[in-house]
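To whoever is on call:

I kicked off a structure prediction for a single chain this morning and the downstream step that reads the tokens threw a length-mismatch warning. I double-checked the sequence; it's 264 residues and nothing unusual in it as far as I can see. Pasting both halves so you can look.
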Amino acid sequence: MKFADLIADRAGICAGLKQGALIGAAVLAVTLQPSGSATSRLASRGAPVALASGSAAFAATPRIAEFGATEPGADARGIADWVATSRDNRQLAFAILDKRAAQLYVFDADARLVGASRVLLGAAPGDDTVAGIGQRPMDQVRAEEKTTPAGRFISHPGRNASGEEVIWVDYGAAVSMHRVRIVDPKERRLERLATGAAEDRRISYGCINIPVEFFDAVMKPMLGASPAVVYVLPERKALAEVFPAYALARDRAKQASIRHDPSG
């Protein structure tokens, strides 16, 4: 069920949000770091730069993320609507990565879609990062360890060890978003990006490979100049496990809708 459907009764939500207990729960929920998330660091400065999830009550009026003509999956839609309502993005641009669909959605700070693109992801399915993997040489990373971790991340622009321009998602785990690169022609990365099958787009060591044109036209202006928030949706774990604040908001909205249903 879409998060938007659960908050359709706006009058009921407004009444519920005026109750102190509900506001307290919402504030607590937004401050929780989701399981599997990490705060990235700005590599170019060599020092950690952190920006945790802020404590902010839900907006009085539920807001809906603007996808335009783009049709996202139910989970991507639910998280986008929750971000729009809760302002979890802290007035920053944000991106949602739907790993199951290997699809990236980029939004401005007001939850308006700027662009969407197919991407390449970690070759191995999974939602966790292996401890210490960011300090290992790439040739020592086993096949089952090539995962793109799920969670809420603060991204920062920077450069990798080769001097390549990247957007760090989880600096400690060496997970970044960057232009698709042809490392081994046998991998057929450009061909994989063009395919409509999400399973074909699982080839990287864990980084998110983005078409060059989309990186230059959308990623650099939106996430390549300052910190942003990146929500990586899980593929094995439950969405509520990775994003407990979203799950709490969804459940609260559903309860409030039931309480104020005039037909009940």
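Update from on-call: the warning came from a stale cache, not from the record. Cleared it. Sanity check on the structure: Confidence is low (pLDDT under 50) at residues 1-60.
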